[in-house]
Design goal:
Blueprint: H1 3-17, E1 24-28, E2 31-36, E3 45-50, E4 61-63, H2 74-91, H3 97-106, H4 108-111, H5 120-131, H6 150-159, H7 175-183
Antiparallel strand pairs: 1-2, 2-3, 3-4
């Protein structure tokens, strides 16, 4: 069988296996994401697998660059990718996307044993606080609020009741006037 036929068969199999699975997402007919772990799990991660034109004879492209993985250190990501590459080498020449996702699910705890969550809000606030002193306070311009004249304020006050709300029907159309204009 050709590479395209293998890919079509594997695509069909993946769609049937992961139908209704919230963790699986098909980005395109040759690119897939799978979330290992639950959304609220601090040790959850996302794997993206993209097939090359000659897949499965050549290895797929495995990535962990998704935004979901921002709280995982690069060392842990590299470790996971290295272990997945070993599984790719063992399965080269066969349909392996399902095998890689299941391998990652089965070994999640082992993959994430050295994981210490990175608090991205802390790093962002540190970056902001580092950059803030560099900006000159005189360069900031304050936005002026639009000022109303006395006449404008009076008109506004006359339209509203004592609570500042517009009376019921303030934007209604005078039906009699409209009918007179249309029928005459």
């Amino acid at each position: 069988m050709s590479a395209n036929e293998d890919q079509e068969m594997e695509l069909e199999a993946l769609r049937s296996i992961y139908e209704g699975d919230e963790s699986f997402r098909e980005l395109s007919p040759v690119s897939f994401q799978y979330r290992i772990g639950e959304n609220d799990d601090p040790k959850a991660f996302l794997i993206e697998i993209s097939w090359t034109e000659t897949y499965p004879q050549t290895p797929p492209i495995i990535s962990m660059n998704a935004f979901f993985n921002n709280n995982i250190s690069s060392a842990v990501k590299q470790s996971i990718l290295a272990k997945l590459q070993e599984a790719v080498a063992a399965n080269l020449g066969t349909a392996m996307t399902y095998t890689l996702f299941e391998y990652a699910k089965d070994n999640k705890d082992q993959f994430m044993e050295n994981h210490n969550p990175i608090n991205s809000t802390t790093t962002i606030s540190n970056i902001i606080s580092i950059e803030t002193p560099n900006t000159a306070p005189s360069s900031k311009k304050k936005d002026k609020k639009e000022q109303l004249s006395k006449a404008q304020k009076r008109k506004l006050a006359d339209k509203t009741d004592h609570k500042g709300e517009l009376p019921r029907g303030w934007n209604w159309v005078d039906v009699v006037k409209v009918f007179k204009q249309n029928w005459l």
